[in-house]
Amino acid sequence: MYNGIEKAKALTTKKDAIILAIESSCDETAAAITCGNKVIASAIDSQIEMHRKFGGVVPEVASREHTLAATRVVDEALKQANLSLKDIDAIAVTYGAGLLGSLLVGVSTAKALAYALDLPLIKVNHIEGHICGVYGTHPKLKPPFMAVVASGGHTLLYNVKGYTDYRIMGGTTDDAAGEAFDKVARLLGLPYPGGPEIERRGELGEANINFFKKERHADKDLKLSYSGLKTAVVNYVHNLKQKGEELPINDICASFQKSAVMLLTLAAEEGFKRLGYDKMVLAGGVAANSGLRKSLEETCKKMGATLYCPDKTLCTDNAAMIGLRAYYSLMAGENVADLSLNADSGLL
Ligand code: KG4
Ligand code: ZN
């Protein structure tokens, strides 16, 4: 007999609830422990080296690596926190969005733990988790705010009205920002993941190539597109190659990054004006990019607002952000799952 759902009801007032969170949506297997809205342990086993030789994430390889690493990261998080499974109040897990096979490893591990320990199981939306990563760095930050989430799989603007109230305002209609960084890096022969590499190479170059004929403003639906920018870079590179000219890799990186940052900044500014808030949050893997942080910081300053970003370690995939999102669910009595929980790869 499983009593997790009943037990969750009794935890809504436990402000220092201890949550063991699991994340396996893409190429990081991670476990973390949170106590209230504080992160007390975070273990990440990255598969980046494994996927690098293929130039990107291979889903089947990712799932297999997750099965090998899942219990290891849970043990490591418990060790870091100096706790045992007996001390845990609830289990949290990312159930979407992400690669189906990868998500299923985390979901199965979390369900097994919840069943064996008879604990509540909290399901977490990965993108909302990214936003909650900011509380790990700014625990006093309170909604409402606008959140810009830029990751490898998503680029979305959110109206965050409360700790458990997330409304999508707009976003990309094609490639995600991180995906565009990764694809351009691959085109230039740079290693996966492309984002950090483009940032590093761009610092050595000049943003002197204009990939846009004119500034691309987000439309009235706050939709933006990264595929046009990616195609502009592809055409530029092919053109030089056809002429047998050497590629100015550092300048291409600097110029691409400048345009990618501008696209998102213009959309963020437009969305932010409509809300009239005084706080903006930047989250997701691409939020680790210093150029993007700086650009949104300047935009916020211009509008009399403040930008909040998670520490860089909380930007790319981790389980601490999943534990933080789950904490607010537990307090609100929402997203409590039963043992039939399934993964949802296209969850928004
Ligand atoms: O959030 P994340 O770890 O995974 C997903 O949920 O997708 O984001 C990974 C993405 C990759 O596309 C990676 O290239 C990008 O974030 N990224 C960056 C930087 N660090 C990671 N993009 C630009 N600049 C960076 N410094
Ligand atoms: Zn992510």
Low-confidence regions: none
| Tertiary shape | globular
CATH third-level topology of the largest domain: Nucleotidyltransferase, domain 5
- Strand-and-helix sequence, N→C? HEEEHHEHEHEEEHHEHHEHEHE
Written description of the protein model:
With 348 residues, this protein is of the alpha/beta class. The protein folds into 2 domains: 4-133 and 316-337, 2-Layer Sandwich (Nucleotidyltransferase, domain 5); 142-310, 2-Layer Sandwich (Nucleotidyltransferase, domain 5). It is built from 11 helices and 12 strands. The strands form 2 sheets. A 6-stranded mixed beta sheet has the order 3-2-1-4-5-12, sandwiched between helices. It has a 6-stranded mixed beta sheet with strand order 9-8-7-6-10-11, with helices on both faces. A hairpin with a 4-residue loop joins strand 6 and strand 7 (155-162). The longest helix has 27 residues, at 249-275. The chain is globular, with a radius of gyration of 20 Å. The model has no long low-confidence stretch (mean pLDDT 96). Residues 26, 151-153, 178, 181-182, 193-196, 199, 284-286, 288-289, 316-317 line the site of 5'-O-[(R)-(carboxyoxy)(hydroxy)phosphoryl]adenosine.
